[in-house]
Amino acid sequence: MQILKQSRRAITLAETVISILLISFVLASTLQIVGPLSRSSALQADRLVAANLASELAEEIATKQFLDSNAASPDDIGIDGDDSVFTRSNFDDIDDYHGWSSSPPKMSYGVTNSSLNGWTRTVDVKHVLVNDPGTTSGSYTGLKKIIVRVYKDGVLLADTRSLHSHAADNLGFVLTSQTGGQQGQQGN
To answer: Are 142 and 128 in contact (CB under 8 A)?
Structure first.
């Protein structure tokens, strides 16, 4: 008995259709994974920018005095009569930043970063209880909570909170600008 061997020289239409279907399933699965990964990478990049913007402003605020010597009352939070509402570089104490907002974010010397259109930075300053910093007080306690928030297109991406005490000013831990633009320590 002889076995006849047939040689195959062509791919059938059914084999072609099955191959195309298998490849399309693999590609569709890959695209379902790659799409969210690229969106996630963009979100992580935005969160990094937001964290840097929040940190930069929080560090700037930390260099300011706890109280303004010209303030009518230590209970007051916000711009004092001797401060300019429009020029952040004139802010000389922590609570001058209360209610401040900038969109797009501006540097302390007033330059706007135009590459950050759609971004907003805001600051909230509150008196808080010394024994419970989570509780807001309507009057002077010697401790203030600073909240810096950064948004992109209305979405909150960074929220930095810090505590500042009047005792730090008294110990000379706050750097303030001296005449001639020199930096030095100033204590009471």
So the answer is: no
Angle (nearest 5°) at CA 134 between 132 and 137: 80
Q: What's the CA gap between 163 and 145, in Å, rounded? A: 5
The residues pairing with 152 across neighbouring beta strands, listed in sequence order, are: 119, 155
Per-residue pLDDT tens digits of the chain, which is 188 residues long: 566 666 666 678 888 888 888 888 888 777 777 766 666 778 889 999 999 999 999 999 988 888 887 777 888 887 766 655 557 777 888 988 999 898 888 877 778 878 889 999 999 999 999 899 889 998 999 999 999 999 999 999 999 999 998 887 766 555 443 333 333 333 33
pTM of the model: 0.69
Structural domain boundaries of the chain? 40-185
